[in-house]
Design goal:
The protein is of the alpha/beta class. It has two domains: 204 residues, Restriction Endonuclease (3-Layer(aba) Sandwich); 87 residues, no CATH class. The protein contains nine helices and 15 strands. Strands 1-2-3-4-8-10 form a six-stranded mixed β-sheet, sandwiched between helices. Strands 7-6-5-9 form a four-stranded mixed β-sheet. Helix 1 packs antiparallel against helix 2. The longest helix has 25 residues.
């Protein structure tokens, strides 16, 4: 049973928005673009594995969590966590194509592309070992002694693992269900009602890291961010407000609701509050009444009165 379903991370959406609104000449553009590509690839890989796990049938109750963030000695976020009456399982998902070699000293993953280009990444092995340790400490502090297993899962068959430590488990997506079915279930640790309580407790403890707005996270001057309403058809930044519509001067298309994504982008990357003047400046508006209409969005939370009025938006999923 899916306790916490797959959802794209808000951080990935924010990275996409920031990449669109940062000039390519900005000194941090390349880093942010690479982070965006890596995060989107990670989300895609996790979605594929989660879709496979949704097909899983077991003779006992179990719960699946996607991207659950917990705190033990430190904060830690697991791609996929499965709890059963017999054990817990952590899946660390990777979406890295090419020939893969994982070494232990130093702990690194080297990917070789078909054209011979090599890229080095942190090894997922110590990462997964740390998650197992942190989860075990969290369970023990709550008087729960249950086996915790782990597996590194490559989302696509385009990953060819040429070399890897023999004491770690490496899977492809199509092997995940078989692997889970074959985990020994000799000793039941939790009754079904206790498993339900553990599921609810984990959901309550889930606490996602808030990196927003990204201008703060990456120490980017908000003045470096390109403003204007984005055209949903061609991506142009700077649509013009006309009667009951937004008009794109580049592709000549019209959109009635183009401002809604731009309003969300503002909170994702620019600032965590907005007032009428800031709205006019970001949306390239002259009329304060047009800004007022935008700020009546039901997703916004209003504080203050008159000129001190500000608005916030809840973004975390």
């Amino acid at each position: 049973m899916i306790a916490k379903p797959f959802a794209k991370t808000i951080h990935a959406e924010a990275l996409t928005a920031l990449t669109k609104r940062l000039r390519k000449t900005h000194p941090k553009y390349t880093q942010i673009r690479d982070d965006m590509m890596q995060k989107n690839a990670g989300d895609l890989g996790e979605e594929v594995v989660m879709r496979e796990i949704e097909k899983l049938k077991l003779p006992h109750k179990f719960y699946v969590f996607h991207n659950i963030s917990l705190y033990s000695e430190v904060n830690f976020q697991m791609d996929i966590l499965i709890i059963t009456p017999f054990y817990a399982l952590i899946l660390e998902v990777k979406n890295i194509s090419g020939e893969i070699e994982i070494s232990t000293n130093p702990a690194e993953l080297v990917r070789t592309k078909p054209n011979g280009e090599k890229n080095s990444f942190n090894s997922p092995v110590p990462q997964l070992e740390e998650y197992i340790y942190q989860l075990s400490q969290l369970f023990r502090s709550n008087k729960l002694n249950i086996p915790i297993y782990g597996a590194i899962t490559f989302a696509f068959a385009s990953s060819y693992v040429k070399k890897a430590p023999s004491n770690s488990v490496f899977l492809l997506t199509n092997e995940v269900r078989k692997f889970i079915r074959e985990i020994k279930t000799d000793k039941r640790i939790l009754a079904d009602n206790e498993l339900d309580k553990l599921k609810n407790w984990l959901l309550q403890k889930n606490n996602e890291y808030n990196s927003l707005p990204l201008s703060n996270h990456f120490a980017i001057n908000p003045q470096d961010i390109v403003t204007g309403v984005e055209c949903p058809f061609c991506g142009y930044l700077g649509m013009k407000k006309v009667i009951r519509n937004w008009a794109c001067p580049r592709c000549r298309n019209f959109s009635k609701y183009a401002h809604e994504q731009t309003l969300k982008d503002y909170f994702l990357i620019y600032k965590n509050t907005i007032n009428n003047e800031e709205c006019r400046r970001f949306f390239h508006l002259q009329d304060k009444h047009e800004a007022t209409r935008i700020l009546k969005n039901p997703k916004l939370i209003k504080t203050g009165i008159a000129r001190s009025t500000k608005y916030t938006m809840t973004l975390q999923k």
